[in-house]
Specification:
50% helix, Enzyme I, Chain A, domain 2, 588 residues, binds magnesium ion, alpha/beta, Glucose Oxidase, domain 1, 8-stranded parallel sheet, 8-stranded mixed sheet, binds phosphoenolpyruvate
Length: 588
């Protein structure tokens, strides 16, 4: 039995499916003699495809950002063309009859060992570039998990060191039983993916990737972070029963999808969905969300082989608008950097990526991309799908008033260009994501220049507590139900109420029963969460009286430690909704 952090409720029983950076198909690790040459050809072809992709990226960077940019892609190309690299891989494929992905995996391990040994900054950067180039190449060789795998083994438990954004794109909508990762906390991408799809998940299980191999039987208890490797038959039977109960309860809750969301004393609430693409928008509709409160557009970029053009983006936004509940969508501009890197902007490695060149900061430095995205949204809002739709634009990681002013100028510029080009467009409300403490403390002045606010509590909590949201070692600090977080939230919600500006919260805490209850008590009326959680929160809302929630949060605000806040809220919410205990996740 192993322990980690339960981050997505429910239990799962299934075979392990280990995901490494390069996916090596477990049933195919040694080539027969007549397979070697075709495999080598496949590798050569993949090199050509990757180089083609790199050149396209470079061209795009040069024309849109500047002639001196895109050098990183040239470096990647030279690495892939390097005879020493080719001969290393050849030795693996031709010399040792290993499939290309296994060969690349071996080469990556060599690079990792070298990186560990060297202190030379130049060599380390070169090795980091080589690593990125190989990962890009491996994407052309083997898909992560296929529908065939799922058909053969049933839904499996994905086990990874870390689930990266591109893994999430690659896993698409395949049926997954559970997720276990070594790193990551409650708001890591693995956790967000899991909750988005209602998949039980545990993060922060040290050494699990080495302990488990493909096909091992696993039990994942996302409520308390327990993992059982090779369960005995009694354990397996007990957990399968729990799994059925969980699925049944979720099914029953989903039946209330057409009911309005209202507290027990008749106050209307709005439950919106967080999505990563068109399929999620459909899921949001199926789950009874009132609209989309957060479309994380970076997934459109992460899933694209190069960079989506303005036309492609506009088409995607039109589809998302059409598929979203009540045609209501808040589109967030690119929020890359931090833990979500993609190479197209030539991202250098930074010592403190979460405090560095990420999100809106990165957009400002690449105004051409930024403007393209803004134009694409305005055009989608002005299209036939946008007619009668409620489309909003949301900007992540706002820190200062100057940033808002710069954004407004950009949006004006985009609209003026479209007007001059006689392209259909519509202006839309502009909002800021409240994720940085500096913005929380100056919210009054920021509110004068935006139309609405969405609290990104995942980032707000990490910045407020100075505790990395992905680092399990500090997850005891990165907790939303803590005195400082509650106080900041109370302040911001009150400031918006006074200024009569709409406010919503789209971090993971919106879908956590205790946090949800506390937020209702603080006066919040709009929430955005994983589509899978909407039915549960709708059910909970119907059992909460606003007056009682207010009293609960008032008492919670008096408590001095996180543990006491958590225990108090657990006890109060359990009394309100005892049967939702199955959806509880134990505190870190
Ligand atoms: C947040 O920070 O709370 C948020 C919703 O954005 P993301 O998780 O994409 O950073
Ligand atoms: Mg964020």
């Amino acid at each position: 039995m192993r322990k980690g952090i339960g981050v997505s409720p429910g239990v799962a029983v299934g075979q392990a499916y280990c995901v490494d950076e390069v996916f090596v198909h477990p049933e195919h690790t040694h080539l027969a003699e007549d397979e070697v040459l075709p495999e080598w050809r496949r590798f050569e072809q993949a090199i050509e495809q990757t180089v083609g992709e790199l050149r396209a990226l470079q061209k795009k960077m040069r024309s849109q950002v500047g002639p001196d940019r895109g050098g990183v892609f040239q470096t990647h190309e030279s690495i892939l063309r390097d005879p020493a690299f080719i001969s290393r891989v050849r030795d693996q494929i031709v010399g040792r009859s290993r499939p290309a992905p296994a060969a690349l995996d071996a080469v990556l391990k060599e690079y990792a060992a070298l990186t560990e040994k060297t202190k030379d900054a130049f060599l380390r950067q070169r090795l980091a570039d080589a690593h990125d180039a190989v990962i890009r190449l491996s994407g052309h060789l083997s898909p992560l998990l296929t529908t065939g795998d799922v058909a053969r083994h049933g839904p499996m438990v994905v086990v990874a060191q870390e689930l990266l954004p591109w893994h999430i794109v690659a896993l698409g909508s395949l049926e997954i039983a559970g997720i276990v990762t070594q790193t990551g906390g409650e708001t890591s991408h693995a956790a967000i993916l899991a909750r988005r799809r209602g998949i039980p998940a545990v993060t922060g299980v040290r050494g699990i990737r080495k302990q488990v191999t493909n096909g091992d039987m696993l039990i994942v208890d996302g409520r308390n972070g327990t993992i059982i490797v090779h369960p005995d038959s009694e354990q397996e039977a007990a957990y399968r029963k729990l799994q059925r109960e969980f699925v049944d309860l979720r099914g029953r809750l989903a039946e209330n999808r057409d009911r309005p969301t209202r507290t027990a004393d008749g106050i209307d609430l709005e439950l919106m969905a967080n999505i990563n693409g068109v399929e999620d928008a459909q899921a949001a509709t199926a789950m009874g969300a009132a609209g989309v409160g957060l479309y994380r557009t970076e997934y459109l970029f992460l899933a694209h082989p190069s960079v989506p053009s303005e036309e492609e983006q506009c088409e995607n936004y039109r589809q998302v608008i059409a598929a979203s509940p009540n045609k209501r969508v808040t589109i967030r501009t690119l929020d890359l950097g931090g833990d979500k890197t993609i190479p197209f902007l030539g991202h250098d490695r930074e010592a403190n990526p979460f405090m560095g060149w990420r999100s809106i900061r990165l957009s400002f430095e690449h105004p051409e991309f930024f403007l393209e995205q803004i134009r694409a949204v305005l055009r989608a809002a002005g299209s036939s799908e946008g007619a009668g739709a409620d489309v909003k634009l949301l900007f992540p990681m706002i820190t200062t008033l100057e940033e808002i002013r710069k954004i407004r100028a950009m949006v004006r510029k985009g609209a003026n260009q479209l007007k001059a080009e006689k392209k259909a467009y519509r202006t839309v409300p502009l909002g800021l994501m409240l994720e940085v403490p500096a913005a929380a403390f100056t919210i009054d002045s920021l509110l004068r220049e935006v139309d609405f606010v969405s609290i990104g509590s995942n980032d707000l909590v990490q910045y407020l507590m100075a505790a990395d949201r992905d680092n399990p070692k500090v997850s005891h600090l990165c907790r939303p139900l803590s005195p400082p977080v509650l106080r900041v939230l109370a302040r911001v919600i009150e400031a918006c109420r006074r200024a009569r500006k709409p406010i919503s919260l789209c971090g993971e805490m919106a879908g956590e029963p205790r946090a949800f209850t506390a937020l209702v008590g603080l006066g919040l009326r709009s929430f955005s969460m994983s589509p899978a959680l909407v039915p549960t929160m709708k059910d909970l809302a119907a059992r909460v009286q606003y007056a009682e929630a207010k009293e609960i949060v008032r008492a919670a605000l008096e408590l001095k430690t996180t543990d006491r806040v958590q225990r108090y809220l657990t006890e109060r919410v359990r009394r309100l909704a005892p049967d939702l205990k199955l959806f509880e996740v134990a505190d870190a």
